[in-house]
Automatic annotation (TrEMBL):
Chain coiled-coil ranges: none
UniProt EC number: 3.1.2.-
Pfam families assigned to the protein according to its UniProt record, in alphabetical order: 4HBT (PF03061)
Protein name in the entry: PaaI family thioesterase
TM region(s), chain numbering: none
GO-annotated molecular function: hydrolase activity
The UniProt record lists the keyword Zinc: no
Domain Thioesterase as annotated: residue spans: 54-129
Naturally occurring in which organism (per UniProt): Sphingomonas kyungheensis
Highest taxon in the source lineage: Bacteria
Keywords assigned by UniProt, alphabetized: Hydrolase
Length: 151
């Protein structure tokens, strides 16, 4: 069943919120909330994201995986901002500069705590990392956040 107009407006507003976050000035990236419980973020990594041994630093892996899982979960919540309470990572391959996609998917929870996972796919279509997070409803109203608006 296709999402209704209210759900689509929420998805676009989450995309706008993501684009407005100051941290995202450090990453060339674009969020798309595909459907309720599914988010995809397209990143372009550069050598600015490298550690001393010439590959992407783990902090970038965390940011990409956490964001994708977070937005997958928050796509199901229309009134409150979620907060990450825990996140587990599995890094399986090094990343170099170039495009990467973070795919997030809601797993469970629809009241106070949500569980979502994400995976990173490199330019060759290979999975290079995955993570699972728990996210909790906060007291922060989405409607009061700068950037949360329909396009």
């Amino acid at each position: 069943m296709p999402p209704d107009a209210g759900a689509l407006a929420h998805f676009r507003a989450l995309e706008s919120l993501y684009a407005a976050a100051p941290i995202n000035r450090m990453f060339e990236s674009r969020l798309e909330v595909v459907e309720a419980g599914v988010a995809r973020i397209h990143f372009r990594l550069t050598e600015d994201h490298y550690h001393a041994a010439g590959a992407v630093h783990g902090t970038s892996y965390f940011k990409m995986l956490d964001d994708a899982a977070f937005y997958a979960a928050n796509s199901l919540v229309t009134d409150r901002f979620l907060l990450t309470t825990a996140f587990n990572l599995l890094l399986t391959r090094p990343l170099k500069a170039g495009p990467v996609v973070a795919e997030g998917r809601w797993i469970s929870g629809k009241r106070r705590v949500y569980v979502a996972d994400a995976r990173l796919i490199d330019a060759e279509g290979e999975e290079v990392a995955r993570g699972t997070g728990t996210f909790m409803r906060s007291q922060i109203a989405l409607s009061g956040l700068p950037g949360y608006r329909s396009a």
